[in-house]
Amino acid sequence: MQNRNILWFTLGTLILLGAQWFVTSRYAPVVPSINNPAPTITPTEPITPPTPMAVAKPTRGLSPGYTVTISNPDIDVSFRKDTGALVQVKWLRDGTLFFPHQTSPGTEGFIGLGESSRVFTDHRAEAKASGTVIDFYNDQGDHLIWTVPTQGYILEVQATSATPQTLTLVPLPETMGPVTNLGRVFSIDENQVNETLWSDILTDPFFSFLGDEREVLPIATQRVGIDAGVEEGAAFQPMSHYFAAIWKSTAGPVSASTLGYTVQTSPTPIALQLYTGPKELGVLSSFDPISSQAVSFGFFGAIAKWMFYILKAIHTQVGNWGWSIVVFTLILRGLLWWPNTKQTISMLRMKDFEPHQKSIQAKYEKYGNDMSKKAEMQRELMDLYKKNNHSPFGGCLPMLLQMPVLFSLWSMLQAVFELRNAPFIGWIHNLSGKDPYYVLPVLMGLGMIVQTAMTPAMGDPQQRKIMMFMMPVMMVFIFAQSPAGLCLYYTVFTLIGLAQTWWVKRNYVSQPIKV
To answer: How far, in Å, CA of 363 to CA of 472, rounded?
Structure first.
């Protein structure tokens, strides 16, 4: 039994480590945000004035040189003057930038959403009841009109052109530079999210020497978008994208090409909507129910989503996400109370079997590595268990049940905007970030050591030492880099388990073994 415990804990640890490494390795390091305040409408004078009557598309990789910024109480939105492309969104609550920005003149920034293939020579902005309307135009009759709402994150876009031209909704850069720190590019249909990481499109795969090729843009639909807003993560904590930019087009077909996701303009105006806000399920659903699928809950998505709904229901009563996690853990522990009790009793019962096991094993020692005799010994052991109505695997079920919950909560904390920067108590100001003083991971590790010490001492003493110290140390190391909300859950889970183990041992009465 002790061997199986070590096996399950080791397997779970390796899976958690592997999952964190896998996700982290697919994102570039974080570039810190620059939180400069922006006025309501801020034109920046061009470094090089645009050439009047220009018709050639500007070079993508160069610095825009000049932008104009429109604000509402929630976001700042910055546009390139020459192409009308949206190049930056700033979340005004904490200054988070949605896209990579230029840190100095000449460095690469984000190419922009809604970039026109024509050059605009002028623009005009007008405040209306619906919001601020900014019209980019030129003498050839091309117009790109953005409406930034008085409140919220849904931008309206209209484009007209005397002759056919291309409007690039989501650009496809040549290198990772313009999309550094951005996770996915995706399209959404009624049944699923078609997604690909930018790094899979723009960098060679690890096995390229064996013929493995780069990914391509997901199939185009009426809803296309990208992850946005990068949080600063620790060494083993993946980058979290709590924001998104999602296009919804109902007037014209969206195409995928070497430029990216594009639509064609014509003399008849085409209208689109662009969501530039948090991945908040309620807000996204009000924009477009299908687009709410952009919230990625990871491999255990169905479980994680239901967990969030349960947490949200608890939060409406408790009012704090940290205490909601505590209440959720108590409920989960209550549901698992019976199987966890059976697990502890199974371990105590195995202690009763130990003298008989050693007697059977000693009988077959003289046969060495004879596989037929080893099989015969296992049959004799199983007959002993069967005669006493005992299953040596009875203690494994609770471990299996809690692993999906653990991984689901981990992925949920990395995806759900409502838990971003959610405070708990004292030193924990952000449940989606790590515990700054490592109090919870250390407390969890101590609880694991005490709980292991309370369980019956069986099997090899060296293996017991590994179980008692090495595994808690490894778990503390992992959880120290994980979200504080996950540490809170597992710490409470461990402490309740410790109390349950004490209670079961206190009331356990050994039963005679039938031989």
So the answer is: 36
Structure tokens given for 393: 């695997």
Distance from C-alpha of 421 to C-alpha of 441, rounded to nearest angstrom: 19
Pairing of strands 241-249, 255-257: unpaired
CB-side neighbour CA atoms (13 Å) of 411: 21
Q: State how far the Cα of 456 lies from the Cα of 452, in Å rounded to an integer.
A: 8
If residue 375 lies in a helix (H) or strand (E), which one and from where to where? helix 371-387
Hey, which bits of 59-164 come out as E strands? 67-71, 75-80, 86-91, 96-97, 115-116, 122-128, 131-137, 143-149, 154-160
CB 398 within 8 A of CB 7: no
CB 275 within 8 A of CB 291: yes
Q: Which residues contact 115 (CB under 8 A, 6 or more apart)?
A: 80, 83, 84, 85, 167, 168, 171
Strands 115-116 and 96-97: unpaired
Residue 195 bridge partners (DSSP): 186
User: How confident is the chain (515 residues) per 10-residue block, as mean pLDDT?
Assistant: 43 51 40 36 38 40 67 95 93 91 69 91 91 93 94 93 88 90 90 92 86 90 91 53 91 86 85 93 90 84 86 93 94 86 81 81 80 84 81 65 79 83 90 89 90 70 71 86 88 90 86 76
**305/310 Cα distance (integer angstroms):** 9
Backbone angles phi, psi at 308, to 5 degrees: -65, -40
Query: What's the predicted TM-score (pTM) here?
Result: 0.76
Instruction: Give the helix ranges, DSSP H, for 395-470.
Output: 397-413, 439-454, 461-465
Q: Which backbone phi and psi does 177 adopt, to 5 degrees? A: -50, -55
Edge-to-edge strand order for the sheet containing 96-97?
Answer: 41-43, 67-71, 75-80, 86-91, 96-97
Q: Evaluate whether 168 touches 259 at the Cβ level (below 8 Å).
A: yes
The residues, ordered by sequence, that sit 6+ positions from 462 with a Cβ below 8 Å of its Cβ are: none
Tokens, residue 335: 């549901």
